[in-house]
Amino acid sequence: MTPANNKQTCVIIGASHAGINCAFSLRKDGWEGNIILYDGDPEFPYHRPPLSKAYLTSEPHTPQSLLFPKENYIDDDITLKLGHRVNAIDRKEQNITLEDGTTQAYDKLVIATGARPFIPPIQGIETAKNCFAMRTALDAVNIREAFNQTAKKRVVVIGGGYIGLETAASLKKLGAQVTVIERENRVLARVTTPEMSAFFTELHQKNGVHILTSKTVITVENKGDYNVVTCDDNTTLEADIIVVGVGIIVNTELALEAGLTIKNGIQVDASMKTNDPNIYAIGDCSFHYNPHYKTNVRLESVQNAVDQAKTAAQAICGDASIIYDSIPWFWSDQFDIKLQMVGLSTGYTDMVIRKEASENSFSVWYFKDLTLLAVDAVNFAKAYILGTRFIKSGQILDKTKIEDASTPFKPNNFLKNEN
Amino acid sequence: MKKITFITSDNQSIVTEANSGNIMELAVKNKVKGIDGDCGGVCSCATCHVHVEPSFWNAIGAPDELENDMLEFDDHVSEFSRLSCQLQVSEVPDGLVLKVAK
After folding, report:
1. What is the rounded CA–CA span in Å between residue A61 and residue A245?
2. Among partner residues A28, A53, A385, which is closest to B74 by beta-carbon distance?
3. Which of A30, A86, B47, B67 could make an SS bond with A1 (beta carbons 3.0 to 4.6 A apart)?
4. Pick the CATH number of A125-247 from 3.30.70.100, 3.40.190.10, 3.90.180.10, 3.50.50.60
């Protein structure tokens, strides 16, 4: 770090996993100038994954799990401007404008604006009783409060993705009567394979969650204390609480208006830099190249947010050689199931399922011809860890041995013989 | 107040004090290099791997099944490996020494 950098300012828009980790990484990597973060969310920066999982089922007034303790922001001289929305980026003047009209100059700008829930244009949804998304701490608090206040605790979850299913599982655990309505013909249709969808459908049904597929909600009618939810096939359900989890809208508006290149997210290079050399984009909002899979992707995950934050920080601190090359990973907790996923299964040609002796413990291995692309591990972390190692090493595996549960689960047992 | 010492992979010794919480959070708070805790402490990411100083192993004890599964095929696993998010300050001995795994 050159002394000239002492007076530089790095502004970060978005104070969640990506933005906050970028701020602390900048300090660790030697950034001596100002670091100022802005976020419309007034809550002190917190872990998002627990919101739909442990937080929902925790005791009332449990505090949010903080990304970093408050003292660390003081120690590292990181300025948080929470509850402050950014309205515009002026690349020529190198400043941002807040919603109250004030401006803040930057030398380097990091866009970590993430995404917001998509609320489908369902007739009556805007006036529905106790209708929430599940993205922010406030959403989780609101859902919990509504749950405690309603007598019948009938919940309709619109959308059978991870957020919808996790929320359904948590509310079911609390004693709700839960129905999930999915538009596609299976849950998790956009994010995983038919086999995994079938497993999670059965898991929820066994636990008493009603799963309705191939149905689209067309109207929601507020009846005062509850709602009537009507689907396109005339199915009607009464709901005291509605949770909407049908997907997200990427927050690219600021970047778009500033003239940055937008594809399926904000286009960045290997160091998370946009087409403006002083502006970086990280986390859910970045459209980036994954060298391992040789493809451009946009990912919604903690891993992606944290790793891209570290990459951008190093690049901003002057490491010109840094390349983002993480293997994506992800997890989901529903009922007594821990799902851990590594890699990207897109484009797989065949799949091997290995079932362990203990119930509900298995792994799905996705291959493109001989190459292992991804592993989904259900209550079997060993497969997740070993899958990660094999994906990185590119070793050729013996699919029949993986499939055969009598083959002891040891790395060398799965390698294809060289000769 | 318990004293817990972290030794990083470049041999830096960081002495910390705490009453509650888990050891991963304590390490993050004290900026211990090599402890990230990306998943927030739910035993999902293995970015908080430590080696317990052998003399404390009996007091700490072996990991449960999930944690053990996370560790078994880690490149840097040892017989004293634990994931620090699964260790509660209230349950570990005072003076504990932990080496951060590579």
Report:
1. 24
2. A385
3. A30
4. 3.50.50.60
